[in-house]
Amino acid sequence: MSKKVIIGNWKMNPSTSKEGDAWFKKIAKLVVKIKKTEVVICPPFLYLEKLSKIRTSKLKLGAQDSFWGDVGPFTGEISSDMLYNSGVRFVILGHSERRALGETNELINKKIKSSLTSGLVPVVCIGEKERDVEHNYFDIVKSQLVDCLKGISRDSISRIIFAYEPVWSISTTENRRDATSSDTREMVMFMRKVLSDISSPQVAHNVRIIYGGSVSGRDAEDFLKNGQVDGLLVGKASLEPKRFFEIIEICEAKV
Ligand code: PGA
Q: Residue 53 burial (CB < 10 Å; 0-12/13-18/19+)?
């Protein structure tokens, strides 16, 4: 059984590397006694190299995106090999904020393949923008999974972490709503069914599916226990080391 995982997505925060160092060091100190939970911080690219020098076995590093090419004429891009060589071990792919900037399932598929080849663990974000009365959101989630995983072997799928992030529950979404643990449980079951059809029942059963969308210390336990997820992807609440640690402690106590 894989460990539960708590991933902090700092997005485009903080504005100085010094502040990023301070947050990271605080979290590293807080997690020294954590045994059962894998903890990952995904800071902006620019801070990764420096933070990789102070990362510990208890606090790992992830990136918020990577490019599919290895080396070459791709101005502004960063490859998964470069990330791996800088001590990064995880990469968030297909986040809804990147999809909103034009990222497609086809592009995410190429990025997943390249990250797996480099040895990174892709954290693939899946989630509908809204919940319509006709329940079309199930089809949306299904096609995101099917298209993002095209041509990827069972073995490789088993290394991926899937993050169910309904866009309507993310803290920065206008007129956001809270997702409930039963919304999540239902979707996670559906995702496992789709994954079983794409790969195998065993892979679908064992693969880690986590939840993200305005998670805080208030609802982390409910999502982990009743939402039946293997961890959480935390945005806003990861920007304060103490608040982030509350979530880690809840996970550690619930495993
Ligand atoms: P949030 O972000 O926790 O601030 O809603 C989660 C995410 O976008 O990954």
A: exposed
Alpha carbon of 147 to those of 97, 142, 173, 232: distances in Å? 18, 9, 25, 23
Of the residues 38, 97, 128, 165, only one is catalytic, namely 165
The catalytic position among 95, 97, 249, 252 is 95
Q: How many other CB atoms are found less than 10 A from the CB of residue 14?
A: 16
- pTM exceeds 0.85 for this model: yes
- At residue 255, the pLDDT reads 62
pLDDT digits (tens, 9 = 90+) for 151-198: 999 999 999 999 999 999 999 999 999 999 999 999 999 999 999 999
Determine the pLDDT at residue 95. 98
CB neighbourhood size of 32 (10 A): 10
Query: Cα(214) to centroid of ligand 1, in Å?
Result: 5
Nearest CA to ligand 1 atom 9: 235
Q: What is the pLDDT of residues 97-117, one digit of tens each?
A: 999 999 999 999 999 999 999
Mention every residue, 6+ apart, whose C-beta is less than 8 A from residue 230.
2, 4, 5, 161, 208, 209, 210
13 C-beta closer than 6 A to ligand 1: no
Name the token pair of 126.
Answer: 């899946």
Best CA proximity match to 62, nearest among 90, 37, 35:
90
